[in-house]
Amino acid sequence: MMAKRIKPDVIVYLPDNKHLIDSEIYAGCIQQYLSAEDTLREQFASQHVQSVRNHIKQLSDKSYHTANGFSTPDFVILFYACRICFPVLPCSSIKICAAMAGRKNCSCKPTTLLATLLLVASIWKL
User: Is the distance from CB of 78 to CB of 23 less than 8 angstroms?
Assistant: First the structure.
């Protein structure tokens, strides 16, 4: 039986042979949300929330921190390349944040990615 190959979206290489795993969230529902009539926006927002929940679970199930060749913390950075993804998340976004924390994921957007990477790198040196 062949071992399942683990292939993250992005590997951030840090000093001392350490790594951070980054995964980009799909924003197809957001594009539909932005171009939809007002009556359909709630539907696309709900689809986006479900898409994010599914992605969180999939990332957690991959257990990158146990894969050979990686020296990484036991969490994955979930990157929202499209900055509109954050504000579109409805009030259930608090639940999504809790789900992320419970499944060892953290989220970043373009304006916070560099700060998050620098923070993790500096804390890891301690």
Answer: yes
| Tokens of residue 110, six digits | 């373009």
pLDDT digits (tens, 9 = 90+) for 48-73: 778 878 888 888 888 777 777 777 77
Instruction: Name 13's bridge partners.
Output: 19
Closest among 61, 72, 56, 73 to 4, alpha carbons compared: 61
d(CA 113, CA 86): 14
Over pLDDT 90: what percentage of the chain? 0
For 62-79, b/e burial (b = at least 16 CB within 10 A) is: bebeebeebebbebbbbb
